[in-house]
Amino acid sequence: MKKLLVIAVALAAVNAQATRARVAALANSPHLIDTQTVYNNPADIFALGSDYVNLETGLTNSTTSTDGAEGMVVRSMGDTKWGLSLGHDSMNGSAWGLRGLAAGANAGFATNQQNPLELTYGAKAADMSWAATLVYSNYQDKVTTAAATAVKESSMGVRVGARAANWDAALRLGLTSTVETGDGSKYTGTAAIGANGGYMMDSWYLFANILSAGFKTENGAGAETSKFNTTSIALGALTEVKKDGSGFFYGASLNNSTSKEDVGDSKTSSMTLPVWVGVEVDAASWLTLRGSITQTLQLLNNSKSETGGTTTSELAPGANDTVVTAGAGLKFNKITVDGTLQGSTNQQLNGNNLLAMLGMTYWY
Amino acid sequence: MKSLLILAVFLTCGLANATKARLAALNSSPHLTDEQLLFLNPIDLNYLDEMAAFETGSSIASASATSTSNGEVIVVRRWKEKSYAVALGHQNEAVYRTRQFINSLGYSYRLQQNPVHVFLAGETDEANWATSVFYSDYHDKVSNQKENTAGLAVAAEIGAWQVTAMSAFINKVQAPADKFDGSGGLSAGLTYLGDNLEAYATFTREPVKVEAVGTETEFHIIQTLRLGLVDSNTKEFNDLFWGGEINTIKVDCRMLNGLTCDQAFVNTTLPVWFGFESQATTWLKIRSSIRQTVLINQSRDEVGYPSGYLAAATGGLSEYTNGLNSTAISAGLGIQLNRLTIDGTLTASASQQLNSLNLLNQVSLKYVF
After folding, report:
1. What is the model's pLDDT at position B311?
2. Which residues does chain A have within 8 Å of residue B349's beta carbon, measured at their own beta carbons?
């Protein structure tokens, strides 16, 4: 059930699919605006200052939220912008995300979106900008009949977002997410809804996020084998102090999540209070260094799992989860190259331990 | 003189001339002008600097070699208003395709042995022209093994239009038990060069045969058709581009493993790509691109060709109306030291790591005279 909890927490985070190297190094803080936060709020394409091409290194078939190859190009046309994204895997359509939770019913359900395509369009008027994104993927193998192999996969979703000087809002709708295996077993995602918003009050950024997603599975005979649903809510606040090309921020949020699986009669709930502190500094004209730490305060770090009415796990408070991440950004003329420092966990910085999660952005 | 204008633009922007590493990092986008693309369109010889480009790699030209694993060099010079080039070690694309296709069926025919390509190009008031020939030869007189190839390419450029035609009219390998014959392969291309837009169409037809003890045991005909568009914007030593093409490959099976067959493999895709190449500093170029198939990704294999060579072939009968994930990132660096450039692909493209164990691959060295 720990995986259920991890997935639910990740789904609850506003920027669960946010910038890889930069936002990973900055604790996935909700106040960040980056080429990757566009996948949460499409209106962020207007907040980035110029058109760009963002390319994230990685594998053709991702195994985690941060190791898949993807890229996006954004281009202006007058007061409007359009964007094309290739390869970005959403949490709801990934083997490492929601679909992976159905692997117990059939291993073939743990299938990523195949050749995901996203089209974004937005416009700006006065100090407000808005944008919308259409997400699509499709795959069909007409010959294979193996029971644990996906022969069909499709997904469709919509994101809309808006941003103004002191507020932002985004809505994400997962319209369809289906996987079918060779023996006729089916995974069907129920309509997923995610919404988040933020408001600047003096120097504080107040934010909220709500997410509801789920799925059901049935075997080749049409019998239901699982029915899962997760709901999460997060409320928080953070502040950032900017000075001489550096930014220091800290924040906290109250996270509540509930996940339920009806066929196996299991339930997981959690209530946590994570805090984070981070800094991003222009160390030189060509170098930006960044780092952050996150930890759940033991004041509120509860989780509980039950199966068939029997408690299988209860932590109050839970185990250590302190994470430090550091990163560097290299700025060359129109290009930025970001990476996390491999030494974040092994404490080393040398020729064999330098940058990971490499991403490049070309601004034009 | 549009060609003179194009030549001036490329020379000043420093984006002409490249290497295998540069092509790989930029997904071999057809809009590139590159000495490596001479082998597909010799007309580009008119737009290259005088240079010598050395590609690192092995001298293994057996069936295990890949299209980019061999060491090679190309030298480009100008004399009396004509351009000349000689390439040593380059595995001709048409020859490589046909031999590695038949090798995927379980054979192990060697690739070209000590291949040589020679190019000649010139400009007139009305048109630019170019031609090239290639040749390779090998003979083991004790075991009676042979390999030889010969081919010709011609190209012309009139206004904004380019046309090319190529033929590998000799493409043979004699092995101890059987012999391969891929002679008679043809390819043709038509390109329109707009201000920022390039439209192109290419067609290839390559018959592949194997004969054992005087009897034909393999006969396949490989045909490809590509129709595409690329838009590129070059400004101040920075290039941003995106493109897409309809790409169809059809392999007709007439004889497979000694048995008559009347089936085919067909794969139609719509890959799109975009990327950039930027002058990061006075001594460093950074380049990267992404490529993925979208919307059209169909294949049908009635033969059961082995996986590995033909995209979407699985080793058995298969049919996909939308195929498997194909997203791939490529990245690379060019380090410019006066007249010398060192190019390489970044191994981080898949590993995501940049350190002394994950740095540059497919390294090449280019000297501009």
Report:
1. 86
2. 57, 69
Pairing of strands A323-332, A335-341: antiparallel
Contact A334 B238 (CB under 8 A): yes
The model's pLDDT over B250-278, given as tens digits with 9 standing for 90+, comes to: 999 999 999 999 999 999 999 999 999 99
CA B47-B52-B56 angle, to 5 degrees, is: 120
Q: Cβ neighbours of residue B358 under 8 Å, at least 6 residues apart?
A: B347, B348, B351
* Residues of A in Cβ contact (< 8 Å) with B242: 73, 84
Report residue A24 as tokens. Answer: 């990973």
Residue B276: list chain A partners with CB under 8 A.
53, 335, 362, 364
* CATH annotation of A2-363: 2.40.160
At CA B1, angle to CA B4 and CA B367, rounded to 5? 10
Please give the structure tokens belonging to residue B75: 């030298």
Q: Which of B240, B279, B327 sits opposite A69 (nearest CB)?
A: B327
Q: Is the pLDDT of residue B35 over 70?
A: yes
- pLDDT average, residue stretch A83-112: 93
Min Cα separation B10/chain A (Å): 20
How many angstroms separate the CA of residue A244 from the nearest CA in chain B? 24
Residues of A in Cβ contact (< 8 Å) with B279 = 333
Provide ipTM, 2 decimals.
Answer: 0.85
Tens of pLDDT along A207-228? 999 999 999 999 999 999 999 9
Partners of residue B248 on adjacent β-strands: B225, B268
A142/B contact by beta carbon, under 8 A: yes
Average pLDDT over chain B reads 89
Angstrom distance (rounded) from CA B298 to CA A82 = 28
Residue A355 forms contact with B (CB below 8 Å)? yes
In chain A, where the domains are located: 2-363
